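FW: tagging you since you asked about this chain on Friday. Here's the raw sequence from the shared folder, copied in full. Didn't touch anything.
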Amino acid sequence: MRAKYTCDGQDISPPLSWSDPPRETVSFVLIVEDIGAPK
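HL: got it, structure written out here
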């Protein structure tokens, strides 16, 4: 991920977009995992 989208950069959300989903699509889910974070 580019630094500007992290707390060390500008701490802004990265641009996300979807196009042409199947007609039956009701919603999207985005799961982000930080493998470096302590559990």
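FW: The chain has a mean pLDDT of 89.
HL: agreed, and The chain has one domain: 1-33.
FW: great, closing this out.
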